[in-house]
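Field reference: sequence -> structure
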Amino acid sequence: MLRNSYRIHPNVYIWFWEEPAPEATKPNRRPMLSMTSKTLNRLQAASLRFMSFHRQIEDKWRSKWEEAHVFEADPDSKRQKIFVTFPYPYMNGPLHVGHAFTATRVDVYARFRRMQGCNVLWPWGWHWTGQPLLGASQRVAKGDETYIRVLREVDGVPDEELKKFVDPLYMAQYYTNEGRKIAKRIGFSVDWRREFTTVWPTFQKF
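Structure field:
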Protein backbone atom coordinates (compact mmCIF):
# COMPACT_ATOMS: atom_id res chain seq x y z
CA MET A 1 0.00 0.00 0.00
CA LEU A 2 1.43 3.37 -1.05
CA ARG A 3 0.94 6.61 0.86
CA ASN A 4 0.87 10.00 -0.87
CA SER A 5 -0.14 13.55 0.00
CA TYR A 6 -1.20 16.72 -1.73
CA ARG A 7 -0.52 20.16 -0.28
CA ILE A 8 -3.61 22.38 -0.72
CA HIS A 9 -2.47 25.15 1.63
CA PRO A 10 0.78 26.00 3.44
CA ASN A 11 -0.58 24.27 6.54
CA VAL A 12 -3.07 21.85 4.98
CA TYR A 13 -2.25 18.51 3.39
CA ILE A 14 -4.55 15.79 2.09
CA TRP A 15 -3.15 12.33 2.75
CA PHE A 16 -4.40 9.23 0.99
CA TRP A 17 -3.50 5.61 0.49
CA GLU A 18 -3.44 3.81 -2.84
CA GLU A 19 -4.39 0.16 -2.92
CA PRO A 20 -2.66 -1.41 -5.97
CA ALA A 21 -5.10 -3.29 -8.14
CA PRO A 22 -4.56 -7.01 -8.84
CA GLU A 23 -2.41 -7.68 -11.88
CA ALA A 24 -5.28 -9.23 -13.81
CA THR A 25 -7.42 -6.12 -13.56
CA LYS A 26 -4.74 -3.46 -13.28
CA PRO A 27 -5.28 -1.89 -16.73
CA ASN A 28 -9.00 -1.35 -16.05
CA ARG A 29 -8.97 -0.18 -12.42
CA ARG A 30 -8.10 3.07 -10.70
CA PRO A 31 -6.34 3.17 -7.30
CA MET A 32 -8.67 2.93 -4.30
CA LEU A 33 -8.49 5.99 -2.03
CA SER A 34 -9.22 6.04 1.69
CA MET A 35 -8.64 8.34 4.62
CA THR A 36 -8.23 7.48 8.28
CA SER A 37 -10.24 9.16 11.05
CA LYS A 38 -6.99 10.54 12.43
CA THR A 39 -6.31 12.23 9.10
CA LEU A 40 -9.82 13.64 8.96
CA ASN A 41 -9.43 15.07 12.46
CA ARG A 42 -6.19 16.72 11.45
CA LEU A 43 -7.79 18.22 8.36
CA GLN A 44 -10.70 19.55 10.41
CA ALA A 45 -8.33 21.09 12.95
CA ALA A 46 -6.27 22.68 10.17
CA SER A 47 -9.42 24.02 8.56
CA LEU A 48 -10.56 25.58 11.83
CA ARG A 49 -7.17 27.25 12.30
CA PHE A 50 -7.31 28.51 8.72
CA MET A 51 -10.79 30.01 9.22
CA SER A 52 -9.82 31.53 12.56
CA PHE A 53 -6.82 33.18 10.92
CA HIS A 54 -9.01 34.74 8.23
CA ARG A 55 -11.57 35.95 10.76
CA GLN A 56 -8.79 37.76 12.59
CA ILE A 57 -7.77 39.48 9.35
CA GLU A 58 -11.39 40.45 8.64
CA ASP A 59 -11.87 41.85 12.14
CA LYS A 60 -8.61 43.79 11.88
CA TRP A 61 -9.48 45.56 8.64
CA ARG A 62 -13.11 46.22 9.52
CA SER A 63 -11.89 47.97 12.65
CA LYS A 64 -9.34 50.01 10.70
CA TRP A 65 -11.94 51.06 8.12
CA GLU A 66 -14.32 52.15 10.86
CA GLU A 67 -11.64 54.07 12.77
CA ALA A 68 -10.50 55.85 9.60
CA HIS A 69 -14.08 56.63 8.43
CA VAL A 70 -13.02 55.60 4.93
CA PHE A 71 -16.58 54.98 3.71
CA GLU A 72 -18.07 58.23 4.99
CA ALA A 73 -18.85 60.63 2.16
CA ASP A 74 -18.88 64.33 3.01
CA PRO A 75 -19.52 67.14 0.49
CA ASP A 76 -16.47 67.77 -1.65
CA SER A 77 -16.82 70.04 -4.70
CA LYS A 78 -13.43 68.95 -6.03
CA ARG A 79 -14.42 65.33 -6.64
CA GLN A 80 -17.00 63.64 -8.83
CA LYS A 81 -20.07 62.54 -6.87
CA ILE A 82 -21.27 58.94 -7.12
CA PHE A 83 -24.39 57.62 -5.39
CA VAL A 84 -25.04 53.87 -5.20
CA THR A 85 -27.76 51.76 -3.66
CA PHE A 86 -29.64 48.50 -4.18
CA PRO A 87 -33.23 47.29 -3.56
CA TYR A 88 -33.88 47.72 0.15
CA PRO A 89 -34.41 44.37 1.87
CA TYR A 90 -37.83 43.74 3.44
CA MET A 91 -37.47 43.48 7.19
CA ASN A 92 -39.90 40.62 7.75
CA GLY A 93 -36.92 38.27 7.98
CA PRO A 94 -33.12 38.13 8.10
CA LEU A 95 -30.75 38.98 5.29
CA HIS A 96 -29.94 36.01 3.07
CA VAL A 97 -27.48 35.04 0.36
CA GLY A 98 -29.50 36.85 -2.31
CA HIS A 99 -29.06 40.15 -0.50
CA ALA A 100 -25.35 39.43 -0.06
CA PHE A 101 -24.98 38.63 -3.77
CA THR A 102 -26.67 41.84 -4.93
CA ALA A 103 -24.99 44.07 -2.35
CA THR A 104 -21.56 42.61 -3.19
CA ARG A 105 -21.88 43.76 -6.79
CA VAL A 106 -22.75 47.26 -5.56
CA ASP A 107 -19.83 47.14 -3.13
CA VAL A 108 -17.35 46.20 -5.87
CA TYR A 109 -18.48 49.14 -8.01
CA ALA A 110 -18.40 51.56 -5.06
CA ARG A 111 -14.87 50.54 -4.10
CA PHE A 112 -13.71 50.75 -7.71
CA ARG A 113 -15.01 54.31 -8.11
CA ARG A 114 -13.41 55.34 -4.79
CA MET A 115 -10.08 54.08 -6.10
CA GLN A 116 -10.64 56.32 -9.11
CA GLY A 117 -10.89 59.29 -6.74
CA CYS A 118 -14.68 59.72 -6.74
CA ASN A 119 -16.68 60.80 -3.70
CA VAL A 120 -18.91 57.72 -3.33
CA LEU A 121 -21.96 57.64 -1.09
CA TRP A 122 -23.66 54.36 -0.25
CA PRO A 123 -26.42 54.73 2.34
CA TRP A 124 -28.04 51.48 3.47
CA GLY A 125 -31.85 51.36 3.40
CA TRP A 126 -34.33 49.05 5.11
CA HIS A 127 -37.81 48.33 3.72
CA TRP A 128 -40.30 48.81 6.55
CA THR A 129 -43.43 49.28 4.44
CA GLY A 130 -45.53 46.98 2.30
CA GLN A 131 -47.56 43.80 2.55
CA PRO A 132 -44.71 41.33 3.27
CA LEU A 133 -43.96 42.89 6.65
CA LEU A 134 -47.61 43.44 7.58
CA GLY A 135 -48.57 39.92 6.52
CA ALA A 136 -45.74 38.37 8.53
CA SER A 137 -46.74 40.28 11.66
CA GLN A 138 -50.39 39.26 11.22
CA ARG A 139 -49.43 35.59 10.98
CA VAL A 140 -47.71 35.90 14.35
CA ALA A 141 -50.72 37.71 15.81
CA LYS A 142 -53.03 34.93 14.59
CA GLY A 143 -50.83 32.27 16.19
CA ASP A 144 -49.70 30.57 12.99
CA GLU A 145 -47.65 27.79 14.63
CA THR A 146 -45.94 26.70 11.41
CA TYR A 147 -44.68 30.19 10.72
CA ILE A 148 -43.80 30.86 14.35
CA ARG A 149 -41.76 27.64 14.43
CA VAL A 150 -39.78 28.85 11.40
CA LEU A 151 -39.06 32.16 13.12
CA ARG A 152 -37.96 30.36 16.26
CA GLU A 153 -35.96 27.46 14.77
CA VAL A 154 -34.63 28.90 11.52
CA ASP A 155 -34.26 32.61 12.30
CA GLY A 156 -33.35 31.95 15.94
CA VAL A 157 -35.78 34.52 17.33
CA PRO A 158 -36.13 34.21 21.14
CA ASP A 159 -39.64 33.60 22.48
CA GLU A 160 -39.64 36.90 24.37
CA GLU A 161 -39.05 38.70 21.07
CA LEU A 162 -41.57 36.63 19.12
CA LYS A 163 -44.38 37.85 21.36
CA LYS A 164 -43.63 41.42 20.27
CA PHE A 165 -43.77 40.61 16.56
CA VAL A 166 -47.52 41.34 16.61
CA ASP A 167 -46.33 44.92 16.09
CA PRO A 168 -44.98 45.08 12.51
CA LEU A 169 -42.68 48.01 13.32
CA TYR A 170 -41.14 46.10 16.22
CA MET A 171 -40.60 43.12 13.93
CA ALA A 172 -38.95 45.40 11.38
CA GLN A 173 -36.70 46.94 14.01
CA TYR A 174 -35.63 43.52 15.29
CA TYR A 175 -34.59 42.28 11.85
CA THR A 176 -32.98 45.63 11.05
CA ASN A 177 -30.76 45.32 14.11
CA GLU A 178 -29.81 41.77 13.14
CA GLY A 179 -29.30 42.68 9.50
CA ARG A 180 -27.04 45.60 10.36
CA LYS A 181 -24.73 43.26 12.26
CA ILE A 182 -24.52 40.96 9.23
CA ALA A 183 -23.92 43.78 6.72
CA LYS A 184 -21.17 45.25 8.89
CA ARG A 185 -19.57 41.86 9.41
CA ILE A 186 -19.46 41.26 5.66
CA GLY A 187 -17.64 44.57 5.37
CA PHE A 188 -19.80 46.44 2.85
CA SER A 189 -18.44 49.93 2.21
CA VAL A 190 -21.53 51.71 3.57
CA ASP A 191 -21.73 55.15 5.14
CA TRP A 192 -23.72 54.02 8.19
CA ARG A 193 -24.36 57.62 9.23
CA ARG A 194 -26.84 57.76 6.33
CA GLU A 195 -28.73 54.58 7.21
CA PHE A 196 -32.51 54.95 6.81
CA THR A 197 -35.83 53.13 6.67
CA THR A 198 -38.74 53.68 4.31
CA VAL A 199 -40.92 55.09 7.11
CA TRP A 200 -38.58 57.93 8.00
CA PRO A 201 -39.92 61.40 7.02
CA THR A 202 -36.65 62.26 5.26
CA PHE A 203 -37.07 59.26 2.94
CA GLN A 204 -40.78 59.83 2.37
CA LYS A 205 -40.02 63.31 1.02
CA PHE A 206 -38.97 61.58 -2.18
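Note: The chain has a mean pLDDT of 86.
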